[in-house]
């Protein structure tokens, strides 16, 4: 009876997972998608717990408590830290898969070696390699994004690195293949731990040559590895829900990585082996480029005269949590009959949809958000482009400078607007670590300061003005 209920619950959870992914593709249904995803996970976990062999084992209580102790603080991180939080979730997923594979191997070796069939051994080896490399790879990625001191943000490279990395993986797979043919051969007591150590080392080596700016893409690639290791775990445990949920996780991670790579005009190989974000040799000491700072009052006067204002938000708006002020600013401008649009770059911020989520939180109507390709057609008619904490996504060097690390990335054509105001705190570069010539453009004026404070002052200046 319990078995039938559990299988039904797993089926319902699978359906809900699929619906959740499908609903996630539109903002109107996104909330429903999250609820469906939570319900599916709850159903899956509770259905697993109620099985007699699990519920009667006291150890499970400890595991549940440990899950809550780690999970609750993880759920409370700010939105800007979601990429590293996601990486930590993948690390735990990889660790769980790796441990389950290891436990099953040793349990079956000692109690019922006939269970170690060729098929199961392939699944165990796959699960253990993918699980453990996801663990260390994700921990490194989270560390880089969190800017942990002892993990270098910049790519660490050395000659022959790709060969060393590939070599580690090939050795791990070769040992795994040998184990598949002879699960309990004379050297198996040494071979299984060797696979674990090699996979752990490979995870670290895979991520150290990749710069911090590429970590979101790496995280989503690791997401797909974690999903695949869950599929393998499903085969080991003969659990259909793990197989389907893992396949959904694996494929969605892969699709997301491809979307991100496209938006940056980069290939997978370039992300994984391109050492993006390496300190660029600076151009020979030429004349110091000059910024033109502007006052909030001056900017407010020009904004008031505009007919079309395009707001281009970026990572800085997220850091400053300026989205509510930005919405107020748009409202102030609209009151004056000015058309206001928000230009959304697919990789603005630190995760796909970052700007959409923030602006939706501030109740900016979704119809005001315009995708990069659509807004670029209007940029020449735009009177004021207001760049709020965006940098790389408006850097014109991406169009023509073949030496630039962002060369080829499609950008929002802020430089085509009649006047450009850029809000940022300092002269520091954005995530790609490069200067932005947009800021030195004749038409560009800088509003230096924290985005929330500056936009707040702009709102005040406009509210204090004539209003007509
Ligand atoms: P960005 O190039 O990182 O620039 C953000 C700018 O915001 C910085 O120049 C910074 O300058 C400013 N800033 C930071 N805090 C601020 C604050 N409190 N107030 C005002 N300004 C602040 O950001 P982006 O233009 O959004 O570009 C995103 C980058 O991330 C791209 O390189 C993209 O390829 C990469 N990336 C994104 C994703 C994704 O999915 N979204 C994935 C992979 C990679 P100051 O320090 O001077 O203030």
Question: What secondary-structure arrangement, pairings included, does this model have?
Answer:
Layout: H1 2-23, H2 27-49, H3 52-55, H4 59-75, H5 82-111, H6 118-145, H7 161-181, H8 188-207, H9 215-237, H10 240-263, H11 268-273, H12 296-305, E1 308-313, H13 315-320, H14 323-335, E2 339-344, H15 354-361, E3 369-371, H16 372-376, E4 384-388, H17 397-400, E5 419-424, E6 444-448, H18 451-464
Parallel strand pairs: 1-2, 1-4, 2-3, 4-5, 5-6
NADP nicotinamide-adenine-dinucleotide phosphate binds near residues 316, 319 and 390.
Quick summary:
With 468 residues, the chain is of the alpha/beta class.
Tell me what the structure shows.
There is one protein chain. This protein has a six-stranded parallel β-sheet with strand order 3-2-1-4-5-6. It has three domains: 1-64; 82-277, no CATH class; 289-465, Rossmann fold. The chain has 468 residues and is of the alpha/beta class. The longest helix is centred in the N-terminal third of the chain and has 30 residues, at 82-111. The N and C termini lie far apart (72 Å). The protein has helices at 2-23, 27-49, 52-55, 59-75, 82-111, 118-145, 161-181, 188-207, 215-237, 240-263, 268-273, 296-305, 315-320, 323-335, 354-361, 372-376, 397-400, 451-464; strands at 308-313, 339-344, 369-371, 384-388, 419-424, 444-448. 59% of the residues lie in helices and 7% in strands. The structure holds NADP nicotinamide-adenine-dinucleotide phosphate. NADP nicotinamide-adenine-dinucleotide phosphate binds next to α9, α13 and β5.
């Amino acid at each position: 009876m319990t078995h039938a209920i559990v299988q039904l619950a797993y089926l319902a959870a699978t359906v809900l997972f699929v619906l959740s992914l499908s609903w996630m593709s539109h903002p109107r249904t996104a909330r429903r998608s999250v609820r469906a995803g939570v319900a599916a996970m709850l159903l899956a976990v509770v259905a697993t717990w109620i099985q007699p062999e699990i519920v009667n084992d006291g150890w499970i209580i400890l595991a549940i408590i440990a899950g809550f102790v780690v999970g609750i603080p993880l759920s409370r991180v700010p939105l800007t830290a979601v990429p590293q939080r996601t990486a930590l979730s993948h690390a735990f997923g990889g660790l769980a898969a790796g441990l389950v594979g290891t436990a099953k191997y040793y349990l079956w070796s000692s109690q019922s070696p006939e269970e170690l069939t060729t098929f199961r051994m392939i699944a165990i080896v796959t699960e253990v390699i993918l699980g453990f490399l996801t663990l260390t790879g994700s921990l490194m990625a989270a560390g880089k994004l969190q800017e942990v001191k002892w993990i270098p943000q910049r790519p660490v490279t050395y000659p022959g690195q790709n060969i060393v990395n590939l070599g580690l993986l090939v050795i791990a797979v070769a040992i795994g293949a040998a184990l598949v043919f002879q699960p309990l051969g004379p050297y198996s007591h040494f071979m299984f731990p060797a696979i674990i150590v090699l996979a752990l080392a490979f995870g670290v080596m895979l991520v150290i040559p990749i710069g911090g700016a590429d970590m979101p893409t790496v995280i989503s690639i690791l997401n797909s590895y974690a999903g695949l290791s869950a599929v393998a775990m499903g085969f080991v445990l003969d659990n259909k829900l793990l197989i389907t949920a893992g396949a959904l996780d694996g494929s969605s991670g892969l699709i997301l990585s491809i979307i991100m790579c496209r938006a940056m005009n980069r290939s997978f190989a370039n992300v994984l082996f391109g050492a993006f974000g390496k300190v660029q040799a600076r151009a020979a000491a030429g004349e110091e480029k000059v910024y033109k700072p502007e006052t909030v009052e001056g900017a407010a006067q020009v904004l008031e005269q505009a007919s079309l204002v395009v707001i281009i938000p970026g990572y800085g708006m997220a850091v400053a949590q300026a989205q509510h002020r930005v919405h107020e600013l748009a409202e102030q401008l609209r009151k004056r009959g000015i058309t206001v649009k928000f230009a959304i770059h697919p990789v603005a911020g630190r995760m796909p949809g970052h700007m959409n989520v923030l602006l939706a939180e501030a109740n900016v109507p979704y119809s005001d958000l315009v995708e990069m390709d659509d807004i670029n057609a209007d940029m020449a008619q735009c009177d004021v482009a207001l760049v709020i904490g965006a940098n790389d996504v408006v850097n014109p060097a991406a169009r023509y400078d073949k030496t630039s690390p962002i060369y080829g990335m499609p950008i929002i054509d802020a430089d085509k607007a009649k006047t450009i105001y850029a809000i940022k705190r300092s002269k520091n570069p954005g995530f790609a670590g490069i200067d932005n010539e947009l800021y030195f453009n004749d038409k560009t004026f800088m509003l230096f300061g924290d985005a929330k404070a500056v936009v707040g002052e702009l709102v005040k200046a406009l509210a204090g003005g004539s209003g007509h």
